[in-house]
Amino acid sequence: MIEIDALTKVYGDTTAVDAVSLTVDTATITAVVGTSGSGKTTLLRMINRLVEPTSGSVRINGEPAGEMAPHLLRRRIGYAIQGHGLFPHHSVARNIGAVPRLLGWSRSDIRARVDELLTLFDMEPASFRDRFPHELSGGQQQRVGVARALASRPDLMLMDEPFGALDPIIRARAQDDLRQIQRKLGSTIMLVTHDMEEAIRLGDKVAVMDDGRLLQYAPPAEIVADPATDFVADLIGDTERPMRFLSLVPVSEIVEDGPADGTAIDSGASLRDALSASLWTDREALPVTRDGTVVGRVTLEAIRARAARAS
Amino acid sequence: MLPFGVIRENRIVLGEDVALWAMAPPWAVSVTLAAVVAGLAMGLVRSRQWLRFAGSLVGVGGIVLTLTIGARALLADAGELARVSPAIGFWLLLLALLLLMADALSAMRPGPGARFAILVGLLGAFGALLGSGALMDLSVMQEYAGRAASFWTAAQRHVALAIGSLAAAALVGFPLGILCHRRAKARGAVLPVLSLLQTIPSLAMFGLMIPILSWVGASVPGARAIGIAGIGFAPAFLALFLYSLLPVVSNTVAGLGTLPPATLEAATGMGMTTRQRLMRVELPLALPVILAAIRIVLVQNIGLAVIAGLIGGGGFGTFVFQGLNQTATDLILLGALPTVLMAIVAGVLMDICVDLTRRAPKGAAP
């Protein structure tokens, strides 16, 4: 758990972060979204004290971060950044093992952990372990960057635009990977992004920042349905709002009894996917399955009604 | 046709030019001509670099053959003090062939190991040639024969000056460079001073050391006992040290300044201390740039150390300045040729080191 209390950073005349308070619950992802210059990166960097706050406090699992030695604090918190920041002169294995080595793990423990993480990220240890960063694709470099942040099993992770340098297709895959791994490990993650789509997709809660202030801190559905200010509404985008909303609601919420033909859709898929499928195949209703058995149908009319209620 | 050799009655008088065909018996001259023509012809084959390299070796072998045989033949008919040395024709041919060799080598792009092997091979061949005594009739070698002991003392002194001052500059320059990298204020103060030192002409610098170190030697207790005086080794060493500082410091600053910011942020963000970040990330990544500076300084120092001879610092410069005073060209060459050779060898060796550090990330074990 990360508790941020009235955290402020002032540079000369400008207030980069203005009295921001929020709490990131254990085993959740908080996505901080804002334009460049909104103070979101400064906020993140004050948590592991790459930036020292002007005032306010941060508590990590109840302990005040300001009272720990900065380098010891940082070793407890996984940190992944845009452009991965891998060490170009170290192999993949040495990059991933960097923090465990700082913590004094044994050689065999580090090796086992490196192989475990490479497997977790779908990279065959035998063929990737000894490669160097410049021999990897952009997506692989990014995965190694995240694997390195996870290496010492930190319960907290800070991520600054971790997927910013990836093309859209690889990015979607990387986001899914992160979601899965976070659920599996129960990590607490605070992630900074400029992309509202990414924030809604990844965040259990979304914090919207502008000009150093926290405008709204709420679950994604609430942000989309009820933006606190015009700025938040702008960031979501007027024309995108119904679609963003539908992407947050699973099919299971509006499943109903009745007949439907054609390819079925899983009850865990979003209404956005269901809408897309029914428009593309020109059907008024789709069969819905759960664990492979048909449990009912979802109709175009029901989807439309749900989208209308949101706005 | 330019003269190939010069014969003189003794080491000081003006000599008499000897043309190539008058230098040696006809068979040797024909072999030489054939070798030079063949070598240069092989050099024209642009597509086969090893053939061009071989051609340069054949050509050099040819001109050395006539030179050695010719020197012996000419001396047989001359007085006891007579000397033979290569003349402009020989030097021009040698220059052309060496240019061919260098061009072929750079086009072949040999790896560090291959380059080291070629260097050792060429030095070995040259050493064997010297050791065989075939060149002993040449005037430079006669100068050497009269001074063999002091030649090797001078060689040692030259190395001590060039490499010792570099080591001292590295010892001071790295920490200073790291400080300048971290603090803009220090950078603003240190780099202009070092640049200013660099602009002092070398003769003036060595001259300036004389009053400064005389004063230190006379007024600081114990200074004289460890050899600090206005002339000799200490002022020469200090002058070379001061010249070496700027390249070492500025390249350390440059090397540290070009590292990817994301890598440095990641290093700090994962919990490295400042020292760990420096030793594990920054210095290893800046190493190729820093080594490039060491290379420049080493080659520069080997050349500059010649001037140490002027203020009694020893080294090959001793022969150069003695030769200048006596207008004895051979003695000047005895100082200059080994200096040039040493500088070239040092340059090639350092290039190999720079390449090895650049390559390390690809081949190194985890």
UniProtKB/TrEMBL annotation, chain A:
GO terms for molecular function: ATP binding; ATP hydrolysis activity. Keywords: ATP-binding, Nucleotide-binding, Transport. InterPro entries: AAA+_ATPase (IPR003593), ABC_transporter-like_ATP-bd (IPR003439), ABC_transporter-like_CS (IPR017871), P-loop_NTPase (IPR027417). Residues 2-236 form the ABC transporter domain. One of its GO terms (biological process) is quaternary ammonium group transport. It holds the Pfam family ABC_tran. Belongs to the ABC transporter superfamily. This is Osmoprotectant transport system ATP-binding protein.
TrEMBL record, chain B:
It is found in: Cell membrane. Pfam families: BPD_transp_1. The chain crosses the membrane at residues 20-41, 53-75, 87-105, 117-138, 158-179, 191-213, 225-246, 285-311, 331-354. GO terms for cellular component: plasma membrane. The keyword Mitochondrion does not apply. It is a multi-pass membrane protein. This is Osmoprotectant transport system permease protein. It comes from Tranquillimonas rosea. The lineage of its organism: Bacteria, Pseudomonadati, Pseudomonadota, Alphaproteobacteria, Rhodobacterales.
